[in-house]
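Regression test attached.
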Amino acid sequence: MEIKIVSVSVPQGSNVVIGQTHFIKSAEDLYEVMATHAQGAEFGIAFSEASGPCLIRREGNCDELEKAAADACMAIGAGHIFVLIMRKAYPISVLNAIKVVQEVCNVFCATANPLGVVVAEADGRRGVLGVIDGDAPKGVESDADRESRKAFLRKIGYKR
Amino acid sequence: MEIKIVSVSVPQGSNVVIGQTHFIKSAEDLYEVMATHAQGAEFGIAFSEASGPCLIRREGNCDELEKAAADACMAIGAGHIFVLIMRKAYPISVLNAIKVVQEVCNVFCATANPLGVVVAEADGRRGVLGVIDGDAPKGVESDADRESRKAFLRKIGYKR
Amino acid sequence: MEIKIVSVSVPQGSNVVIGQTHFIKSAEDLYEVMATHAQGAEFGIAFSEASGPCLIRREGNCDELEKAAADACMAIGAGHIFVLIMRKAYPISVLNAIKVVQEVCNVFCATANPLGVVVAEADGRRGVLGVIDGDAPKGVESDADRESRKAFLRKIGYKR
Amino acid sequence: MEIKIVSVSVPQGSNVVIGQTHFIKSAEDLYEVMATHAQGAEFGIAFSEASGPCLIRREGNCDELEKAAADACMAIGAGHIFVLIMRKAYPISVLNAIKVVQEVCNVFCATANPLGVVVAEADGRRGVLGVIDGDAPKGVESDADRESRKAFLRKIGYKR
Amino acid sequence: MEIKIVSVSVPQGSNVVIGQTHFIKSAEDLYEVMATHAQGAEFGIAFSEASGPCLIRREGNCDELEKAAADACMAIGAGHIFVLIMRKAYPISVLNAIKVVQEVCNVFCATANPLGVVVAEADGRRGVLGVIDGDAPKGVESDADRESRKAFLRKIGYKR
Amino acid sequence: MEIKIVSVSVPQGSNVVIGQTHFIKSAEDLYEVMATHAQGAEFGIAFSEASGPCLIRREGNCDELEKAAADACMAIGAGHIFVLIMRKAYPISVLNAIKVVQEVCNVFCATANPLGVVVAEADGRRGVLGVIDGDAPKGVESDADRESRKAFLRKIGYKR
């Protein structure tokens, strides 16, 4: 067995959500979540079928992002993984809807950061172990940092 | 620390769901989810208590599957893991109910594929890192593949 | 790439929940979940911002637990992780509320056991792969063990 | 304004779920919930479109139940109502899945009892106010009744 | 048909939650939600069985509140209703857990206010139409009222 | 007791969601749901406090819609009701997020139709019994109508 890091880079200004599901139906279901919960968004979805034809299944409303999702999913190379890339929308708007899709097992990450996906490989088959999502923490926030953080969230309107 | 792959094979025609929970109560709660959400199913559940007597706790309505779940859970050997094996039912029917069981932390997989569970072992204690669920993807679906996929889901009645 | 185990020890009598989220807002949102769902609890929350200032963001109603959470989060050193330590409350009371926080991707564990967090490190950046939560299972419960287990859950009132 | 009771009777051995939704898409979405969560069930679904052509939209996998649902929905005569009738399945297996359908506002009842739907009518338009679901209570259970109740639920396997 | 108001008064310092469910199992399930999500709370639960023996089913950890719940449920007199009365806990801590109980259809109210339950009665059978929960609004808040409201929620710690 | 219909009309192009909650905190929580789940939307929220000062509490990012929500809430005149009016967003995108707000009891409707809210009034206090949401159904769809419906949902991209 070998453990490797697969770099996932997404088009400028987009976010990526990666998770584990259990059936081919999740490609369409994730499409419908995006279509109804993230109006105005551009997105692409890929799912790695893990038996039979073993194809990367793909959906989306934007060819560029659909191709980026399929490429990332192929590079990760693990079975039953989905990769969702979105633009003009943020994961915070759709993550709860994704988590209750009936085939979704879990979500590894939702991020716009540089991303490394840690995979285990054995006998030509792979599984995702986890993700390296952005940079390491540099220190603990001070009370002043806390105030800035709270002010920022209120400025963008996410907190009241 | 050592990283190993534990092969999990389930009885013909069955599916397995593996996850992390936080309390012994999850054995009974998962039983009740299966009893009420997958009527007519046969199933076995195992949970690895991780303190005190450290027993594999087990529930189910089918001795064979209960034993298979306990064996798989013992082979994985990590604390606070559950293994659920079902027959005459599919994970798609129960996965959302499992995800909202109050002790469930996450679900690693739900699959009928050959399965390798990747574990880290140190000082005789283990944790699950991820799963190798079925085969690697071989390529990206064509437009014709997409139509076949959609037709298949409509033929089995899962999509309208 | 290197794989390491980070030991997380929490103050006597407390439980820890560790998960992956996707945005700085989760610090306040997890605070509100604890304040409204675990009345009377003491708790501390830390979140590792993974871009820009890369600070450990912190919230809580108890300085000791807030510091313990920040220390554990810094020791884990991965991006977009949260650590929640609680006392006078149990994860079973709040875990479902945590799972539906809109930025939470997944929950690695909820435990009072000795805990090892398995991390992958590359180029000074880290990701959580999984957890070693308590001790390994020692055997499968007998029918008598099962009865004791069920009696215990009814004695503490969790099952009826 | 007038307040009336509409009697809803369902085919022998079936259960009915009635609720309020907000969009025509709910007909297909409820179909998919039944198809994936109640395998082996027969069912019919009706939804009362409340603008434009104002048609009773219908889905299902059983003509008899689809017609029964459409008839009940037409008799109720309120806008944005759904009626779901199922056989060889029980509401307990699908109710949580129905509640998270993205267009569902609320669920008035899920029952096999004789049912009266209370509607308000004004200017030819109607709304559901509530349901009369089965018979009135006759008294409070004794301790012995409680034991019988608990034993019954364990005998049918719903509680452990 | 007659429409009546049933006054529900609860013991000093307690809150009441009233809803519609579809099966006798909900009595135990609501008990387990309270036992695990509202630690330290006193509570009583009643459920009005609507077929067969038509008994008020009751659960709880406090005789006074169990009796109060049964009395209120009997006074309401509708089928498939639950009444939950709690003390030393607030509905905000348990309402989401109640909403996902698998037999719960909907929740009419959660309140400490004087409460009138509006019921329709026909042929000796009743249904709940709605609730009159507390006093009517007297006016719209000013900007100063808004600031006081926000300050209050932060003072009690519910908002950050 | 008197039963009345309160007409609710919303500004051109907007939708309204009305529900029952149990605490003043819901005004801010609903604001945060809209801010994070319906990016780009304009909205106003009103909540009718039912004890103490009994004020219509209001939030929003658009004065016109905040005023419209407060006016509708005042006209309905029942305690513990919320009214949410949105523009440039549809309820389908936010309804599940609203249903899991921790103080929300239920949702009466989500609609752009002409709306009548049926209220019971006694001793100057009111409760919502239900809604008359749009027009009455005129007939059952034919097979051709069904095909048009399905085609329409696929044309707007909501179904795949």
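Expected vs. actual: identical. Chain B touches chain D at residues 28, 31-32, 35-40, 59, 61, 89-90, 92-93, 96-97, 100, 157-160 (CB under 8 Å).
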